[in-house]
């Protein structure tokens, strides 16, 4: 039995174990891991999410069962003090000693604390471990009770900005203090830093550049920071995030060679000066550099594992430091050499201060090679640019198209993922190449995307490469003649579009007819709602007609919330409401003890209704003139509006009236995904119409119609479909657009994704719904016309038919309510007790 | 919460000591669930008409401990009848309660019998 000891239980130490286990096969090894922290290895990259409510367990890299299954002994809370290299043993602070054959140092780094007088004062923290975060949270709470509001973060790098967001989330005003003249000085140039700075300042985070701190002011606890120009920044807390310092103490006391400025010296096989000891991650000094990113650490883990197992894999000569991330909600990316400036290089810069976008690419003078670049505000081009850079691919004739987008046509300037060479690294966290992804499909070892993910681990790190992996898998499937069908589920080998036609042509009205004739099995939670939605789209059936196959929210005509209660949203078209109706909503909320909140779409949401109270709540609302707001349905939720020229001194047209008309026109219509709209009376865009599936903005001479935007996880601005058109034309184009989307989109596909996947893109869509190129406009309008005007309030139907009310009792055999529901107080209202 | 979930243990038909009358046929919707109260327990009962079978399981979702499984959607996966939780669409076998998404937690299932239009669920006590 060969003994491998891993000192350090961070992300890289964990990755070493994972790689080692995967490679070791049948050979007999015993891995023992030592970590000084009291818990399993966790994802430090996403540490800030701990503030946002994630638990330490959520951040864990694996389960304790994983260690057991793989026969790895994990000793937490045990610090290794010394290595006896002659006898090949280590000694821990518990005075225990352990033998090893190979030792792997993965001790990482600690926060670098600059030698500023007063850093030892109370209220000064570093930002590194879960314990640090706990201490920061406790201190923030304490000083806030004494009225403190200001806190500083020392360091304007990646981690410093993360820390600033964390400080803001704790309810304090953060000030970022940076010694260099710009933010993220290692990744960004002046222009990019300026753009980032203005975006961050909009979030009320103070930025102080060019500031050397003389000393920390205050008696025992921090009261301020004194800068070199004798300017005092008053703060009651300071989080230091000014860089990292390799944890090389153990290596030093054990006589291993370390660098002048710290770090354990390693060669390209990750061996230290002792051939039986390896060092990986942020403690390793490779090529005179400490690499503070997780991807190089993972690669080092891979190399060390391979070496110990007798392989000959070595570390690459140059390590890529490209990064893409979202900082405080701002997209930032840098790749290759972002700064390079000499006579042979041209920097192409695109800057749009209005939308906060800065892009720079560095291209050789002959326009043939991409050397590096920076993206701030919009990093959607990152994946493509990074591939072009790292594979030294040919650039388009006008390299500026790479960051400006091809003006005019809709085709991508990046080309397709299939143009990449097989050696192109697609997933840099797991170092998976295009070749290995495609091969997995073409050699038959994998059939589906999830098979490929399981086999190669691609996308399992940061996930940034997912769209590209999906494209590659599809292309590889196609290349071996495999029919790529986006079938709905195991019960139907059809797409939603095909099923739509099947239902329409055969005039089916019952789910079981459809599955018996065209599917197999008993159906499931995926295909049932799809068919129910198709019935609704064709016949405008309300959700009451297909109760058994409706998705949960449609079934109870309300949104199920965290504790199994429901929320209720009456329709308030365009957000316009009378005082009388507002009072009714308030009274209902009082009577049923509901939590009340105004939604982002200008509606009132009433939370915490027991399923059995829903009919009575709706009886009162309907008696007072309300109707269902369909907040639970994949259907039109709301059309948001600004106040328009009725009141606003800038308004160019009556947006409220228009929004009411649009909302009433499309209310109740079922669609593949939920739909939202907005109408703004001027380009100031108070209704945020361009963040919606359809948006209308008043301009000189009519209305501009935008389509296919959305909020959500991947926000997309809507794109311009038609300019300066009148209301009637808006309705006409909208009818055609919505119906075309309803007929052709996959289940739960948003309008934005639908347009992205539409062959020919926006230009093609314009051809179809404006110029009627394929001659279907009349049919689309007719289909929509049959839906408009057949609206029925689903809740009214329920209340009129006692038979339909039955589904709203919690028990079949008792009138009791669910006694499992518990609440805790929240700012004069209540919320469900945490899980 | 742990206590709550420990109250639910699968019952094999041969071990049933008490057949509790949950209601009559018409009390339960077809191909959907209904929740019954038995002592301090909540049990979801499914008239899976399409398969001509009845199933019963704990009403608590084992993931977040909310009493909601009776409001889930029935279906099948590779021929195994299942229930999808309405909260996060985790799916469980109605036959043995196993988690069909491969996660650790599963649900307790109970035998059901129908005699002369009356529906009974079997318990140990």
Automatic annotation (TrEMBL), chain A:
Keyword Secreted: no
UniProt-recorded Gene Ontology molecular function terms: 2 iron, 2 sulfur cluster binding; 4 iron, 4 sulfur cluster binding; flavin adenine dinucleotide binding; heme binding; metal ion binding; NADP binding; nitrite reductase (NADH) activity
Occurrences of domain FAD/NAD(P)-binding (ranges): 3-306
Gene3D superfamilies for the chain: 3.30.390.30, BFD-like [2Fe-2S]-binding domain, FAD/NAD(P)-binding domain, Sulfite Reductase Hemoprotein, domain 1
Domain NADH-rubredoxin oxidoreductase C-terminal: 322-384
Binding site for siroheme: 686
Domain BFD-like [2Fe-2S]-binding residues, every copy: 425-474
One Pfam match: NIR_SIR
Coiled coil: none
Residues reported in the UniProt entry to bind [4Fe-4S] cluster: 642, 648, 682, 686
Keyword Flavoprotein: yes
Every Nitrite/Sulfite reductase ferredoxin-like domain range: 561-623
SUPFAM superfamilies per the UniProt record, alphabetical: FAD/NAD(P)-binding domain, Nitrite and sulphite reductase 4Fe-4S domain-like, Nitrite/Sulfite reductase N-terminal domain-like
Co-factor binding details: Binds 1 [4Fe-4S] cluster per subunit.
Named cofactor requirement(s): [4Fe-4S] cluster; FAD; siroheme; [2Fe-2S] cluster
Keywords, sorted A to Z: 2Fe-2S, 4Fe-4S, FAD, Flavoprotein, Heme, Iron, Iron-sulfur, Metal-binding, Nitrate assimilation, Oxidoreductase
GO biological process: nitrate assimilation
PANTHER family reported in the protein's UniProt record: NITRITE REDUCTASE (NADH) LARGE SUBUNIT
Protein name: Nitrite reductase large subunit
Gene that specifies this protein: nirB
UniProtKB/TrEMBL annotation, chain B:
PROSITE patterns for the chain: RIESKE (PS51296)
BP-aspect Gene Ontology terms: nitrate assimilation
Listed name of the protein: Nitrite reductase small subunit NirD
Residue ranges of every copy of the Rieske domain listed in the record: 20-121
Top-level taxon: Bacteria
MF terms in GO: 2 iron, 2 sulfur cluster binding; metal ion binding; nitrite reductase [NAD(P)H] activity
SUPFAM superfamilies per the UniProt record, alphabetical: ISP domain (SSF50022)
Cross-referenced NCBIfam families: nirD_assim_sml
Keywords linked to the UniProt accession: 2Fe-2S, Heme, Iron, Iron-sulfur, Metal-binding, Nitrate assimilation, Oxidoreductase
CDD domains on file: Rieske_NirD (cd03529)
InterPro entries hit by this protein: NasD-like (IPR052034), Rieske-like_NirD (IPR012748), Rieske_2Fe-2S (IPR017941), Rieske_2Fe-2S_sf (IPR036922)
């Amino acid at each position: 039995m060969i003994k491998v000891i891993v000192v350090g239980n961070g992300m890289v130490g964990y990755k070493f174990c994972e790689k080692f286990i995967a490679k070791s096969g049948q050979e007999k090894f015993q891995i023992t891991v030592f970590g000084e922290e009291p818990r399993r290895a966790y994802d430090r990259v996403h540490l800030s999410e701990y503030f946002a409510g994630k638990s330490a367990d959520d951040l864990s890299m694996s389960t304790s069962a994983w260690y057991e299954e793989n026969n790895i002994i994990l000793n937490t809370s045990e610090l290794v003090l010394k290595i006896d290299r002659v006898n090949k043993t280590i000694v821990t602070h518990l005075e225990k000693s352990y033998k090893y054959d190979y030792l792997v140092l993965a001790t990482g780094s600690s926060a670098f604390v600059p030698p500023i007088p007063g850093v030892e004062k109370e209220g000064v923290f570093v930002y590194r471990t879960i314990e640090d975060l706990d201490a920061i949270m406790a201190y923030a709470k304490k000083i806030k009770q004494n009225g403190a509001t200001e806190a500083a973060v020392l360091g304007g790098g990646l981690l410093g900005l993360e820390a600033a967001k964390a400080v803001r989330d704790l309810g304090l005003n953060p000030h970022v203090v940076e010694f260099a003249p710009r933010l993220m000085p290692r990744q960004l140039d002046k222009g990019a830093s300026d753009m980032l700075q203005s975006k961050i300042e909009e979030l009320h985070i103070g930025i102080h550049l060019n500031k050397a701190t003389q000393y920390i002011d205050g008696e025992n606890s921090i009261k301020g920071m004194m800068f070199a120009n004798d300017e005092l920044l008053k703060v009651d807390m300071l989080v230091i995030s000014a860089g990292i310092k390799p944890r090389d103490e153990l290596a030093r006391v054990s006589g291993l060679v370390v660098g002048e400025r710290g770090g354990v010296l390693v060669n390209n096989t990750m061996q230290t000066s002792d051939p039986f000891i390896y060092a990986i991650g942020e403690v390793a000094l490779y090529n005179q550099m400490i690499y503070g990113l997780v991807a190089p650490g993972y690669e080092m883990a891979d190399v060390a594992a391979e070496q110990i197992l007798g392989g000959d894999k070595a570390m690459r000569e140059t390590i890529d430091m490209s990064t893409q991330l979202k900082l405080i909600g701002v997209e930032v990316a840098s790749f290759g050499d972002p700064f390079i400036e000499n006579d042979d290089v041209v920097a192409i810069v695109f800057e749009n201060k209005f939308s906060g976008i800065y892009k720079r690419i560095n291209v050789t003078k002959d326009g043939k090679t991409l050397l590096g670049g920076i993206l701030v505000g919009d990093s959607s081009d990152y994946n493509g640019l990074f591939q072009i850079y790292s594979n030294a691919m040919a650039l388009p004739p006008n390299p500026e198209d790479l960051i400006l987008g091809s003006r005019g046509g809709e085709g991508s300037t990046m080309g397709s993922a299939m143009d990449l060479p097989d050696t192109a690294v697609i997933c840099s966290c797991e170092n998976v190449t295009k070749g290995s992804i495609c091969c997995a499909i073409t050699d038959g070892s994998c059939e589906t995307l999830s098979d490929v993910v399981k086999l190669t681990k691609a996308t399992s790190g940061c996930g940034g490469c997912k769209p590209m992996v999906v494209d590659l898998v599809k292309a590889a499937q196609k290349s071996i003649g495999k029919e790529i069908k986006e079938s709905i589920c195991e019960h139907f080998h059809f797409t939603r579009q095909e099923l739509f036609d099947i239902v329409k042509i055969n005039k089916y009205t019952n789910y079981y007819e459809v599955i018996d004739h065209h599917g197999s099995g008993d159906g499931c939670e995926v295909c049932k709602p799809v068919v129910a939605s198709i019935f609704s789209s064709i016949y405008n059936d309300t959700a009451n007609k297909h109760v058994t196959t409706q998705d949960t929210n449609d079934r109870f005509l309300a949104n199920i919330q965290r504790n199994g209660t429901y929320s209720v949203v009456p329709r308030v078209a365009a957000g316009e409401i009378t005082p009388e109706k507002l009072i009714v909503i308030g009274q209902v909320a009082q009577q049923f003890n509901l939590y009340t909140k105004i939604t982002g779409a200008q509606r009132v949401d009433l939370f915490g209704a027991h399923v059995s109270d829903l009919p009575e709540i709706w009886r009162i609302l309907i008696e007072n003139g309300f109707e269902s707001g369909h907040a639970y349905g994949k259907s039109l939720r709301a059309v948001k509006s600004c106040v328009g020229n009725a009141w606003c001194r800038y308004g160019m047209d009556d947006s409220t009236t228009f929004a009411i008309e649009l909302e009433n026109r499309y209310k109740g219509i079922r669609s593949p995904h939920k739909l939202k709209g907005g109408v703004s009376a001027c380009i100031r865009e108070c209704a945020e119409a361009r963040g919606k599936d359809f948006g209308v903005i008043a301009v000189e001479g009519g209305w501009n119609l935008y389509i296919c935007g959305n909020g959500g996880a991947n926000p997309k601005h809507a794109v311009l479909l038609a300019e300066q058109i009148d209301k009637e034309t808006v309705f006409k184009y909208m009818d055609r657009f919505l119906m075309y989307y309803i007929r052709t989109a996959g289940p739960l596909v948003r309008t934005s994704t639908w347009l992205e996947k539409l062959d020919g893109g926006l230009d093609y869509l314009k051809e179809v719904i404006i110029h009627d190129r394929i001659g279907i406009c009349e049919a689309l309008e007719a289909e929509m016309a049959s839906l408009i005007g057949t609206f029925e309030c689903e809740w009214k139907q329920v209340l009129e038919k006692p038979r339909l009310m039955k589904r709203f009792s919690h028990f079949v055999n008792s009138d009791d309510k669910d006694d499992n529901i518990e609440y805790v107080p929240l700012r004069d209202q209540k919320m469900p007790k945490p899980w | 919460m742990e206590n709550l979930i420990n109250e639910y243990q699968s019952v094999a038909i041969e071990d049933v000591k008490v057949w509790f009358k949950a209601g009559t046929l018409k009390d339960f919707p077809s191909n959907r669930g209904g929740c019954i109260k038995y002592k301090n327990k909540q049990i979801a009962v499914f008239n899976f008409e399409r398969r001509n079978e009845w199933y019963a399981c704990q009403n608590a979702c084992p993931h977040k401990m909310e009493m909601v499984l009776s409001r889930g959607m029935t279906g099948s996966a590779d021929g195994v009848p299942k229930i999808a939780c309405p909260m996060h669409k985790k799916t469980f076998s109605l036959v043995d309660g196993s988690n069909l998404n491969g996660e650790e937690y599963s649900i307790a299932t109970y035998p059901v019998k129908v005699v002369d239009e009356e529906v009974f669920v079997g318990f140990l006590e």
